[in-house]
Design goal:
mainly alpha; 3 helices
Length: 71
């Protein structure tokens, strides 16, 4: 997460607009956002090398779950 966004969230916490637990939860979620993009890229790369229909379907399902829950 960019430092400027973390600073703005911290300012909202300081003003009492955000509670401490919400601030921590937002920071954690925003820090993990890049991880999901990397996982998506790895799954798509693996899909291009899939050697069976079942394996390809499994990878496609994994990608669908990530997209449904985290987009």
């Amino acid at each position: 997460m960019p430092h400027s966004l973390r600073a703005k969230l911290s300012g909202l916490r300081y003003k009492g607009i955000l509670e401490d637990k919400d601030y921590k939860r937002l920071c954690k979620a925003l820090d993990n956002e890049d991880v999901l993009d990397k996982i998506r890229a790895e799954i798509k790369k693996e899909m291009s090398n899939a050697d069976s229909v079942d394996y390809l379907n499994g990878l496609n399902r994994a990608l669908m779950i990530i997209n449904e829950k985290y987009r």
